[in-house]
Specification:
Elements lengths: L7 E7 H11 L5 H9 L3 E11 L4 H13 L3 E6 L1 E4 L5 E4 L3 H11 L5 E5 L6 H9 L3 E6 L10 H6 L2 E4 H8 L19 E2 L17
Parallel strand pairs: 1-2, 1-6, 2-3, 6-7, 7-8
Antiparallel strand pairs: 3-9, 4-5
């Protein structure tokens, strides 16, 4: 079913997960094109981007986060935490599941449709919870990689599963284009900035929901 103009949609992007998925498929995301694609299908209420920031990489990733913030995304970040595991190895933790879940639950009653860019099976309970409120959920990840990057339980729970490869021609960055600030240093993030998405011109696209 094509998304109608009255459809109120919000995007929830697990930044680290989407980055890893796109890299596994061999392309980079053009976030300006991504935003425009979804603005062309109904009313885009909000586009959230979540990532954890490693303290000593803050300077290198700030240009990307600022670009997203000034170009229609609501950026949610937090610093990673370092710890030593039981084997004495240094580990870095930067999980954004709670922040994404809280925002989705708070907005659910004002939405018709949620698009979750993540393959993380931890979000299955969130998807189920917002579905009980009458919200349709599309999950964007991939089964085209080896191994597939979406958890089977999340794929089963979603109303619609969209493989990222189906969106590639609409949201991939052209190799000839000048890239936005690098995302490679950004892996996973609460400095919260609230910004209303910019309006985009209607364009044809593959998105179904």
């Amino acid at each position: 079913m094509t998304v109608s103009s009255a459809n109120r949609t919000a995007l929830f992007i697990d930044g680290a997960n989407l980055y890893s998925t796109a890299k596994a498929l061999g392309f980079d995301i053009d976030y300006k094109r991504l935003l425009k694609e979804f603005q062309s299908h109904g009313t885009l209420v909000r586009a959230f981007y979540y990532t954890a920031v490693i303290e000593d990489q803050e300077f290198s990733v700030r240009p990307l986060l600022d670009w997203l913030d000034y170009n229609g995304f609501t950026v949610v970040t937090k610093p990673t935490k370092e710890f030593i595991d039981a084997n004495g190895h240094r580990k870095v933790k930067g999980n954004m599941d709670i922040e994404l879940t809280v925002d989705a639950m708070e907005l659910a009653d004002r939405l018709d449709h949620i698009v979750l860019f993540s393959g993380d099976g931890h979000f299955r309970s969130l998807v189920e919870a917002v579905q009980r409120r009458g919200v349709r959920v599309t999950v964007v990840s991939t089964i085209s990689s080896q191994p597939p990057l979406i958890a089977d339980e999340l794929r089963r729970q979603a109303d619609v599963f969209t493989d990222l490869t189906d969106l590639q021609s609409y949201i991939a960055r052209s190799p000839l284009e000048r890239p936005t600030p690098r995302e490679a240093s950004l892996h996973s993030t609460h400095n919260v900035h609230r910004r209303t998405p910019l309006k985009g011109d209607p364009t044809p696209g593959p998105f179904k929901g």
